[in-house]
Design brief:
Blueprint: E1 2-10, H1 14-24, E2 35-42, E3 45-53, H2 58-83
Antiparallel strand pairs: 1-3, 2-3
Length: 84
Amino acid sequence: MKIHSELVLTYGEEREAKTVYYALKPDNVFAKEGMAIKDVLENSKIKIIVELRGNHRIIGTLYSTLNEILAHVKSIEVLLKKLK
């Protein structure tokens, strides 16, 4: 079984997108076996692609992975608002 998921984050300014993109970079370096995480920065958009291979349990892994990424994004966004 293979799952492909794309998460697209859009920001009002390219600077915000870059900040979030580079803050997430360390988390995307080490992926579990059977998982690939790719990220692309395009102007004010960040595209995060998660691909998983495995048995029926990868649905839970995908859910956990996306949840973790979104939690990190939320933390970064809260920090950015405080710095403005």
